[in-house]
Amino acid sequence: MLAPPSRRDQILNAARDAFTTAGYDGTAVGDIARNLGISKAAITYHFPAKADLITALLDPLIDQLQTVLAQRPEPAWPTEVRQLLHNYFVVLIESIDLARWADTDPALRADNRPGTTLRRFDQQLAQRIADPDPTRQDHMRALAAIGGIWRPLHHEPALQLLEHIDEIINAALVSYAPLDAQLPT
To answer: What is the pTM of this model?
Structure first.
């Protein structure tokens, strides 16, 4: 028999539901406490500041994306770039609600917030997709390829994305590929 979730996990689950539904600024710690039937002090015991909830929720996603990027610092085109995009996209799909939230919540896009880190990861991913000495045009095409994997997250459920991952990655690669390049299937 599984043990019930700890109080900390209950708080994180409730915060995740609230933040991904109403956004960071639209959620008060008191709302989370009320939904759980506990006091605000019970939450601040585990998470002294509201921002600590963001860290606890998004750090695992950020760590996984950082690991994916670190595994392929200089991927070869197109096979290793395809694998890099695939692995990156799978991490996003596995935490789709958090990825959607981090991508769109203005409060998370502010300086020194997880959205800033994710934008930095987009830049690092673009550098890996582009040629070693990319032109500005190469960089823009690489960012378009990254957008090609982020946008579907907002329109389809995770299972549909996983079923069509090859088509999504191929479409993303086409936006970067040289016109005469052959993409792997």
So the answer is: 0.90
